[in-house]
Design goal:
about 250 residues; alpha+beta; 5-stranded mixed sheet; 7 helices; 7 strands; about 65% helix; GGDEF_dom; membrane; Rev_trsase/Diguanyl_cyclase; transmembrane helix; coiled coil
């Protein structure tokens, strides 16, 4: 917002400064030229600087204020656009409910890793009896369960692995350049921590969660499609053998 009083004050001060310099100059040069600074000449010497300097400087300061406001607005708009782009990039990569990578991004990164000569381990994770949780306690409780699992996966993987929601209650984790023993220990730790999760349902029931996990060791130059299929099949074997199990 333009402060017109400040513009006017600066214009008056500029006019006063112009008047001061004009009086100094004329008081020096007029006598040297044989003239006398008095009467109408003095009035014009005073009036002309004020009549020209104040309006012109007011217009200048007003335009400067407008330009400053325009620059500030442009900077705010640029910052807002940058934040919106950051949010859009995040939304394009992440699953909005769980915070892990969405299916497309996870698969893109997993396939890209397979082409770079890395090895590792792929975990295919499926929450047990998830439909029962939804049917018994409502979708809000089911969403809370998925959200808690996403938070757990992000905390356990961080920079060690990529984690994505592959669909519904299914998640994938790929641990890059890890030996089989570490991968098996990680899968067991994950299974135990999922079993320790509890969700409070609207009726105050304490809802327990478990997961079936299929693990596939991926050697250098592995086939990503085959690895996904094997991990998925092992996860279903864990389901058939009683759930809350790891099949590797």
């Amino acid at each position: 917002m333009i402060n017109y009083w400040r513009v006017l004050l600066k214009a008056v001060l500029t006019g006063a400064l112009a008047l001061t310099f004009t009086l100094i100059i004329t008081s020096i040069f007029v006598p040297m030229m044989g003239g006398q600074l008095a009467g109408a000449g003095l009035v014009m010497t005073i009036a002309c600087p004020l009549a020209t300097a104040i309006p012109m400087s007011a217009l200048h300061y007003l335009n400067s204020e407008r330009l400053k406001i325009a620059k500030d607005d442009a900077l705010k708009a640029q910052n807002a656009l940058e934040q919106a782009n950051i949010l859009l990039r995040k939304l394009a990569r992440e699953d909005s409910l769980t915070g892990v990578l969405n299916r497309a991004t996870f698969l893109d990164e997993f396939f890209a890793i397979s082409k770079t000569g890395h090895s590792g381990g792929l975990l295919f994770i499926d929450l047990d009896y998830f439909k029962t949780i939804n049917d018994t306690y409502g979708h809000a409780t089911g969403d809370a369960a998925l959200r808690r699992l996403g938070q757990l996966l992000k905390r356990l993987t961080e920079k060690k692995a990529i984690t994505g929601r592959l669909g519904g209650e299914e998640f994938g984790v790929f641990i890059k350049n890890a030996d089989p023993d570490y991968i098996y220990r990680y899968a067991e730790e994950l299974r135990e921590k999922i079993s320790a999760l509890r969700i409070i349902a609207p009726n105050n029931d304490n809802v327990r969660m478990t997961a079936s996990i299929g693990v596939t060791i991926c050697e250098t130059a592995f086939n990503p499609e085959r690895a996904l299929l094997e991990a998925d099949e092992k996860m279903y074997i864990a389901k058939r053998q009683g759930r809350n199990l790891i099949i590797a």
